[in-house]
Design brief:
Largest sheet: 5 strands, parallel
Protein name: Sulfotransferase domain-containing protein
Structural class: alpha/beta
Pfam families: Sulfotransfer_1 (PF00685)
Strand content: 5-15%
Distance between the termini: 56 Å
Keywords: Glycoprotein, Membrane, Transferase, Transmembrane, Transmembrane helix
Strand order of the largest sheet: 5-6-4-7-8
Helix content: 25-40%
GO molecular function: transferase activity
Shape: globular
InterPro entries: NST/OST, P-loop_NTPase, Sulfotransferase_dom
Amino acid sequence: MGRGMRWSPIGEGKYSSIPSRTARTPPSSPGGDIELSNRHDCEEEDEFDVYSVHTSSQSKVWILAILFVAAVCFAAVSIADRNKQDQSEQQSNVLGAVEFPSDVLFGTALIEDAHTIKSNDFSPPYDIQSDFLNELGNIPPFWEEVEHIANTTGAFSGVTSWGPCYPIQYDWREQVSVQAPFRSNNDEITYLNAPGRHGDKTPQSSFYSGNHDVSINTNLAGLCRPGYIIIGQAKCGTSSLYQYLSGHPRVLPAKQKQLNYFKYLAYMPMEWYLSNFPSAQSFLARGALMTGESSPSYFPYPEVPHLIHERMRAENEPHPKIIAIVRDPISRSMSSYKYNYVDPALKMLSKRPKNPQAHAALENISEEMPDEYYIENHLFTFEELVRAEIKVLQQCLVPDGVAEQMSRSKYGPPNGMYADDFTDAAIPLINADEFCYGESISDAVPLAQWAELIQQNPNKLIVGLDYHLIRSIVGRSLYSLFMDWWYARFSQDDIYVVCTEDLHFEPAETMLNVSLFLGLPRFDFTNVTSEGMYNVGFHQGYDTLTTWDEIEEEAVSENDQDDRDYANIGYDVDLSEELRNELMEFFLPYNEALFKLTGKRCQWE
């Protein structure tokens, strides 16, 4: 519907943007056999009237002439009116239908005095009184136009899209009515087809090309944008946060939790990315307000916030909200050690891959031994890897050190993607993850930070594993360094930070706060969060649920009754008091920088 059009009632529960055509009553005739009265824009006079048909031939000629002229003018007016109506229909057809079925979508009939008429024979998917503006005054991303309609008295302006969904032609009533019985069944959510992951011929684009900018992509009809993006950090509870949020009745899940588009698949067209979210039909049928994804791979890389901003946050336009989740950095580092080093190493020792690098590393290690034997004799301890990494970080992160200089050279002026931010920032932007760990030295010594460890412990395994994740067990817990880049592209109003500990110990309240920030209507998450947690400890898998009873049992078995670490279920990692104190001292300034940056303080001791 074009902007500036009025919502005009055309029947019970139906509203149209087509201007009403008011019929005029012809004036009474003084007498005669024929009366003709109408109003025509083709005449200068308001009206012309024909009275009293005479029997003479001259009169008949004049009458026929007048009738002919009237018929021509009437036809011209009809064509003009039809053209105007067609134009109005085209304007109002932005959402695919002339009629806007307010009774079906809202259960109300919007009329000029804002009076509402409830529909008794249908349960509408949306509540126009509460869905589009919540108690905090927050509007769900992309719903500003509908919120304006819901809170305006008098004339209503047009809607150019349905929330986050791009317009497409629908039979609104059919889409809403047919799928109504399946609103609580995720199996009935539809996703539109898009080019295959590897079948697209689009060349890889630079971060500056804008080739996949949604504003110029013509293949987005019926696709819907995410209202939120959970960016991580990894091993902080992103799976539980995503699954809990998907439990809100106004939120639909993506095809899969982690899409990783803006890090690993950004060469694909925007059409492919958005095809991983529910279609506009599903939004209409289920009364959805938003969908979203959760990709921890986004968190550490400066290119990602820049790319999301470039493709999805046009100036003064709606855009997704960013949700970050952070965890006690010591706890997260222990979890990363187990998840990214111990588990893969034990798997490699068990399966004995045949690639030359792994074979060389394993040839002097006995086969078919229990995990305890390998952990004790052939794996580096948490303390060994952490102390080696801290030594590297302390040297790299000094003021005007390697990380700061290299970050400024790559991202700063004159031509870096964050050039203006380096010029204006009081605190330098630092990419420690890229510039602090150096390059590989040799097959036997993958990174310089491990050279001494490998020399002293030649029978311990690290070759053949994912160095990129093992090298930064501590570094990826320096959250403030990563969040600086996100706040360089998004405002305080765009980002919400969750503390993992709050999600674990007060999950329902924490999720309520997240949902209200997103503009969602109030919802009690108790039943959703009471089921347990996802992807916890040994129970790996983004949708793998571990019940609270199971978590309690494992916490009791692994820890003293008074010192349970629910965040590290399944990670029995030795941590000396001396190392704990050293880590607390090392993390302290970065934690404080995070709290100051985000305006939120996590209860980390």
